[in-house]
Write a structure and sequence with these properties.
The complex is a heterodimer.
Chain A (H helix, E strand, L loop, with lengths): L2 H31 L2 E2 L7 E2 L3 H7 L2 H18 L1 H14 L4 H13 L2 H12 L5 H8 L14 H26 L3 H9 L4 H29 L3 H7 L7 H4 L2 H11 L3 H29 L4
Antiparallel strand pairs in A: 1-2
Chain B lengths: L1 H17 L15 E7 L5 H14 L3 E7 L2 H14 L5 E4 L1 H9 L7 H6 L9 H5 L2 E2 L2 E2 L1 E3 L5 E6 H7 L10 H11 L7 E3 L5 H11 L17 H15 L6 H6 L2 H6 L3 E7 L3 H6 L7 E5 L8 E3 L3 E4 L6 H11 L2 H9 L12 H6 L6 H5 L4 E3 L6 H6 L1 H10 L4 H17 L2
Parallel strand pairs in B: 1-2, 1-3, 8-9, 11-13
Antiparallel strand pairs in B: 3-12, 4-5, 6-12, 7-9, 7-10
Helix pairs in contact in B: 1-3, 2-15, 9-10, 19-20
The chains are: A mainly alpha, B alpha/beta.
């Protein structure tokens, strides 16, 4: 080994050790556990595919996947919103940073704090949302105590929380679009709206694609909001509002069925891989790499 | 991403530390300096725990006790991962519904001999509490405190509605009638809070109706029996009469918060709220407590925290000594004097009563005579977690109580059959 190769190994070692210890090893042990019955104490026993078979017939798992899927679809609606907002902020000539900071604040706020504040906003009797709705004569609901509304309520918060990071990525994408393209189209008589749909969106599509991938992965892993907003002692909406990661947490760390929990985590990993692969396949038809 | 990986990390940590579990436990050498850790989940009680540790160290200069306070949501997962992986604290708080898993898994140090050699009088504790920390005839934890239930009530709301305060003559009917009279929709005031609450609520009324919750032997539940149904109906009737906020309202705002904001006049719950109500300036002079009403008979469930030790400790002798101290009169007196909890040790409760003289706290101590241990069987956490889902339709009036009870019983029995 040459001395420079040795130095190279030394330099990548911290990252590699971290990767192995924090990602690879836990992943492998989760994978192994998914084929085991792991009691709270004592040795685990191999049970083959039992966990997966049980999982396939478990209505609770299907419901949780359904909830996570609904949440993901709803949060994706935040992306068009982010594109429009990013384009609008780009138009602002003064105080652009102020807007960016305002939208970015929820990203750097503790999810626990965000959850607590929104729990108050959504409160059916004393909440701000219902109070505002009452000005317009609209009857409020128990947004986070009625399973018909919980996922929608979470999605609204999820969009709001994700907006900041999306705006930063899309904003960077916008600045990479040459000004000359807009000037040329203006000379040809294109208005702002036309420019948005025919220049901004296509040229921004690689960034939009990237943001979509990140959003889907994050949405399928939603956990904190439900943990903070619904985990009060007697919230009767919890049973029907669990997301897949919440269910994983409950199985592995409340009921101590770690093998079953591990199987849920592995299935979620596969679902996320499929969803991501699908998006890469689909991007060929809409993402424009100029 | 974050959460999946924290979880995976915890799993990995368990595996890694499991490999290093071969150390032999150090032999007890009194001259040796030894450090013990003592874990709890209550910021409120931590000062009292520090005080107890300091007192113990004064008597045992060679032992240092470190008090660790973990947040409640993380307490059980941290303890379980630690106990499985050999890194658990030496001494820690235990609860009856988690106890069986730990005792069965061999994670707890056997205190039976210590009780004999240290001359600990087991009759000094409420029997229902000490029984719940006995597994296969062995003692694995000594009761720290206990709680029974009573009717917390708001005198101001009773006065405003012209209803006389609850007392030990009350039966179920008086509660129903009073709750109705106290309810005033115009003011947003309800007579009582009727959530789907096991420990403060329907467990008590099921027992008062003469029913049982888990059948003897612990392999089947008894939620669909006629007595249990009567006990559940006590609550669904209150819902039906509109005498309580709805389930949705109680999901948004917990019953205790409703009581504290003076929206409900009665709240069935435990002694553990005393300090919180006492400290609440808005409730000054307005709150008191009465015994639970009588059904066919008197009954309340009781439970208490136990102090347990980790079987894999490096210092078993010192740990046993510390646990014996925690179970003794001195530790109980410190807890009572600080007003934090109702100590389990007989005869040490007076300072606790004196610390909040405006409440008739004796009610909770008198209730020990008719108390029944909190039911535990199989994976208690799992079947208890199903209650809200199965019983909500009965509370909402969407299903007859009998039907919901039958379905819940079937679901609980399925969990119990898994062992």
């Amino acid at each position: 080994m040459t001395s420079s190769a040795r130095w190279a190994l030394l330099f990548v070692a911290p990252a590699t050790v971290g990767l192995v210890a924090l990602y690879l090893w836990p992943f492998l042990s989760t994978f192994v556990k998914s084929f085991q019955d792991v009691p709270a104490f004592g040795p685990a026993t191999y049970t083959g595919l039992d966990n997966y078979v049980e999982l396939a017939g478990d209505g609770e798992v299907w419901q949780a996947f359904g909830n996570s899927a609904l949440y993901t679809v709803l949060v994706l609606l935040g992306i068009p919103l982010a594109v429009v907002l990013a384009a609008l902020i780009e138009q602002v000539s003064r105080g652009r940073t102020v807007y960016r900071v305002l939208f970015f604040l929820p990203v750097v706020t503790l999810p626990v704090a965000v959850g607590m504040v929104w729990r108050f906003i959504y409160n059916g009797d004393f909440g701000l949302l219902n109070h505002v709705l009452s000005w317009f004569g609209i009857d409020g609901h128990y947004w986070v105590a009625d399973a018909r509304f919980t996922i929608y309520a979470f999605a609204a918060v999820g969009i709001w929380m994700g907006l900041g990071i999306n705006l930063i990525i899309l904003g960077a994408g916008l600045q990479a679009i040459p000004k000359a393209v807009y000037e040329a189209s203006a000379l040809d008589g294109a208005g702002r709206v036309r420019q948005f749909f025919h220049i901004t969106v296509p040229l921004l599509s690689p960034s939009i694609f990237f943001v979509t991938i990140l959003t889907v992965i994050a949405a399928l892993q939603m956990f904190d909001l439900i943990f903070i907003m619904l985990r009060s002692v007697n919230n009767t909406a919890l049973a029907d509002s669990k997301t897949i990661v919440y269910l994983f947490y409950e199985k592995a760390f409340v009921q101590f069925q770690q093998g079953y929990g591990a199987a849920i985590a592995i299935v979620l990993l596969i679902v996320i891989m499929i969803a991501t692969a699908l998006q890469f396949r689909l991007q060929r038809s809409w993402v424009f790499y100029g | 991403m974050r959460h999946t990986w924290t979880a995976a990390l915890a799993v990995a940590a368990t595996l890694l530390t499991a490999c290093s579990g071969g150390e032999s436990p150090g032999t007890a050498n009194t001259a040796e300096k030894v450090t013990l850790t003592y874990a709890n989940w209550s910021e409120d009680q931590a000062p009292a725990m520090e005080q107890i540790a300091a007192e113990f160290q004064k008597q045992n200069p060679n032992i240092t006790v470190k008090v660790q306070t973990l947040p409640w949501p993380e307490y059980w997962s941290t303890l379980q991962v630690g106990a499985a992986g050999g890194t658990a604290p030496d001494a820690f708080w235990m609860l009856a519904d988690h106890f069986r898993e730990y005792a069965k898994g061999g994670a707890l140090i056997d205190l039976s001999d210590t009780v004999k050699t240290a001359g600990i009088d087991m009759t000094a504790y409420p029997k229902a509490v000490s029984d719940s920390y006995t597994y296969e005839g062995k003692i694995f934890a000594l009761p720290k405190d206990f709680d029974t239930n009573g009717i917390w009530y708001n005198k101001a709301l009773f006065d405003a509605a012209g209803v006389s305060y609850p007392d030990d003559t009350w039966g179920w009917q008086q509660v129903q009638d009073a709750a109705k009279k106290l309810t005033d929709p115009a003011k947003g005031v309800w007579g009582i809070a009727a959530p789907i609450d096991a420990q403060g609520g329907y467990y008590n009324t099921i027992l008062q109706a003469g029913g049982s919750i888990i059948k003897p032997g612990g392999t089947a539940s008894d939620f669909a029996g006629p007595e249990a149904v009567a006990g559940l109906k006590f609550w669904t009737d209150l819902q039906k009469a509109g005498s309580s906020p709805t389930l949705k309202q109680l999901s948004d705002t917990e019953a205790v918060s409703m009581f504290e904001s003076q929206k409900v006049a009665m709240y069935f719950s435990g002694a553990y709220w005393a300090l919180r109500f006492h400290k609440n300036a808005d409730l000054k002079g307005k709150v008191d407590v009465a015994p639970l009403p009588q059904g066919v008979k008197r009954a309340t469930v009781t439970s208490g925290i136990g102090n347990a030790g980790y079987a894999g400790t490096k210092h078993p002798e010192e740990l046993k000594k510390f646990l014996a101290f925690l179970g003794g009169a001195k530790a109980a007196e410190i807890q009572a004097a600080t007003g934090t909890v109702l100590p389990a040790y007989k005869g040490t409760q007076q300072p606790w009563l004196d610390s909040m003289p405006e409440f008739k706290l004796q009610v909770f101590i008198d209730a020990v005579d008719y108390s029944v241990p909190l039911p535990v069987a199989g994976d208690t956490a799992e079947w208890q977690g199903l209650a809200a889902q199965y019983l909500a339709p009965a509370w909402d009036g969407a299903k007859p109580v009998e039907e919901a009870a039958k379905e819940y019983q079937a679901a609980v029995d399925e969990v119990l059959a898994e062992q």
